[in-house]
Amino acid sequence: MTAREPDRQEVLAAADAIVDAFAATDGDRYFATFAPEATFVFHTEPARLDDRAAYERLWAEWVDGGWSVTSCTSSNRHVQTFPGGAVFAHDVDTSVETGDGPDTYRERETIVFRADGDRLVAVHEHLSPFPG
Prior knowledge:
By secondary structure, this protein is α+β, with helices and mostly antiparallel strands. It is built from three helices and five strands, in the order H-H-E-H-E-E-E-E. It has helices at residues 8-23, 27-31, 52-64; strands at 34-42, 68-82, 85-98, 101-116, 119-129. A hairpin with a 2-residue loop joins strand 3 (85-98) and strand 4. The chain is globular, with a radius of gyration of 15 Å. The termini are far apart. The model has no long low-confidence stretch (mean pLDDT 96).
């Protein structure tokens, strides 16, 4: 049986769901887009997060410390599909409130999706600083 190859619009919709939930600081909706075994590499963290539960714990710490997203904008979007999944890459401009006040940053992000029945589920997210 050949793995289903998602189309570009499906990938963009899945990515939009992640960005929209993140922008709303909606942890339940955000984490529902990731597989339990998803991994996360963030340039701001000292180690890779080896599953969704590890990121959920980190997220809870951030929120408990006064962190929330006030805006998140995706641009320069690129989609690569293949049988069984897709890779989505984009630039992300984010503004947050923290316990120390507002902050903004620009990053590059890659999200790897797996076709899971009729939906796409994220299995890896990688954030890196935007050069310059």
